[in-house]
Amino acid sequence: MKNQQRLIVGLVLALIVIIFALLNGQPVAVNFFGAAFQWPLIVVIVVCLLLGALVTLLVSTASLAKTHKQLKALEAENQQLTQAQEDAIATATKQASEEIASLKAQLAAKAETSAPTPDESK
Predict the structure, then answer these.
(1) Cα–Cα nearest to 49, from 15, 26, 3, 9
(2) 46 belongs to a structural domain
(3) Which helix (H) or strand (E) holds 35?
(4) Domain with 56 in it
């Protein structure tokens, strides 16, 4: 939905620029680094529009690359933290299992020593 809205806004803006360019077709003088040209205003407008789009593309690409790099770093950090958490859980589970086994052994030993023998019960 968001991309459709962007497309519609882009098409409306392009239509406005085209109408503006068609209404301004008279030749104009353009000075560029000492060189003078006589170009129709429509060409100047379209060239400036394309240059603006190119600059926008370059800036957004640089920003996107930086964001992508940060995302990769955060994903790697997340994976390391997840692995550390899984290792901690495994260690805690192993320690708890060993403690349970030790307590069961102590309980069994206590039960054997405190259980009455058949001779004592008579």
Answers:
(1) 15
(2) yes
(3) strand 35-40
(4) 17-108
